[in-house]
Amino acid sequence: MPRALISGITGQDGSYLTEFLLSKGYEVHGIIRRGSTFNTHRIDHIYTDPHDPRARLFLHYGDLSDSGQLMHLIYNIQPDEIYHLGAQSHVRVSFDIPEYTGDITALGTTRILEAIRRSGIKTKFYQASSSEMFGASPPPQSEKTPFYPRSPYAAAKVYAYWLTVNYREAYNLFACNGILFNHESPRRGETFVTRKITRALSHILLGKQKRLYLGNLNAKRDWGFAPEYVEMMWLMLQADIADDYVVGTGESHSVREFVEKAFSYAGIELEWKGEGVNEKGIIKSLDISLTSHLSPGDVVIEIDPKYFRPTEVEHLQADITKAREKLGWQPRTTFEELVKIMVDYDLKRLKLNPIGEGIKICQDKGFCYTEHELTYIPNTENAQS
């Protein structure tokens, strides 16, 4: 049975990757940080008591700042594959805590690579790189596009990227970089803009929130569906030769478009008035079923300058030619479908009736909707056995 170790297992990507690897017959080990409250809600539905002889998911305490514990875990677990997804991953927050971001996001990668090298184990290593590394470089961005980081987070990821390349070339490690563009899902953290939008929309519909505050509405990103991207992570480590790949959809859409699509799907047509920080999103028309506490003319979107980045990244769009031609990977979920999936989930989470198209999309494309959330595994029981 192949064995995998995942840092960042409790995050969006880590939870989907865990489900995917379990469906492939793996034994999965995850590194989690000790906390006074539980932070494993994204994987609780697939976790079983380690005393159960059928258990194939195991969690271990550790931290990317603790090189000794990382060495201990890697040497004792002896994983066939290591997926390094853990990081301080919020771009805007990285401006507030740049030192911590560098220590965890950049040097955390160093500590894992050194643990692999010093332990002498035979393993394959995946580094979660980011499209933010391209920063101000014009789109479309490919593996050959120069990096131009525009945040402490992006700079830390550039360091981790080149260190992964260096260890591959210097020590003959099977080490790959996946340069993933924005990938979203119902499991996305609530402070990331896409989830912030769909979560706020559901609260507005319920009458629990009046307005959604955003930053740069015109920033354009290449947004895909996260469960598909973890499949690409796995494909990279199944290749004969370690290499680096850009992963995205090849399309870009603005934050404004995401807002408009989400609200429209829920029955609200928006119009924009004002400019710059004074721009507002106003209800132009809405479905009659929503009229109990919402009315045309209501302001539901405002700009808050605190969400602007000191140095903005205006436009990211992937060129996935290499991933498609070498590994046969390409996305199956469109931008509009992604929006519908996320809106449906957040409506369901607040016990509102989902429109249903997003749920059907997941079912039709081979994704499975559970009471907990979206999962990659067609048969959930297989993940727990």
Determine Rg (CA atoms, Å): 21 Å
Low-confidence stretches: 376-385
How would you write the strand order of the largest sheet?
3-2-1-4-5-6-11
Percent of residues in beta strands: 15-25%
Helical stretch tally = 12
Write down the overall geometry.
globular
- In CATH's first tier, which class of the domain at 3-188 and 222-251 and 315-334 and 366-384 applies? Alpha Beta
**CATH homologous superfamily grouping of the domain at 3-188 and 222-251 and 315-334 and 366-384:** NAD(P)-binding Rossmann-like Domain
What is the name of the CATH architecture of the domain at 3-188 and 222-251 and 315-334 and 366-384?
Answer: 3-Layer(aba) Sandwich
Biggest β-sheet: count, sense, barrel? Answer: 7 strands, parallel
N-to-C CA distance: 14 Å
List the helices and strands and how they pair.
Elements lengths: L2 E5 L4 H12 L3 E6 L24 E5 L5 H11 L3 E4 L6 H6 L1 H22 L4 E7 L21 H20 L2 E7 L2 E2 L8 H14 L5 E3 L5 E2 L2 E2 H13 L6 E3 L5 E2 H11 L2 E6 L6 E7 L12 E5 L17 H7 L7 H15 L7 H8 L3 E2 L4 E2 L4 H5 L1
Parallel strand pairs: 1-2, 1-4, 2-3, 4-5, 5-6, 6-11, 7-10, 8-15
Antiparallel strand pairs: 9-12, 13-14, 14-15, 16-17
Helix pairs in contact: 1-7, 2-4, 4-5, 6-8, 6-10, 8-10, 10-11
Q: Which tags fit this structure?
A:
four-stranded mixed beta sheet; seven-stranded parallel beta sheet; 17 strands; 37% helix; 385 residues; alpha/beta
Report what the structure shows.
The chain contains 12 helices and 17 strands. The protein has helices at 12-23, 67-77, 91-96, 98-119, 152-171, 193-206, 226-238, 255-265, 321-327, 335-349, 357-364, 380-384; strands spanning 3-7, 27-32, 57-61, 81-84, 124-130, 174-180, 183-184, 212-214, 220-221, 224-225, 245-247, 253-254, 268-273, 280-286, 299-303, 368-369, 374-375. The protein has a 7-stranded parallel β-sheet, with helices on both faces. Strands 8-15-14-13 form a 4-stranded mixed β-sheet. The chain starts with a strand and ends with a helix.
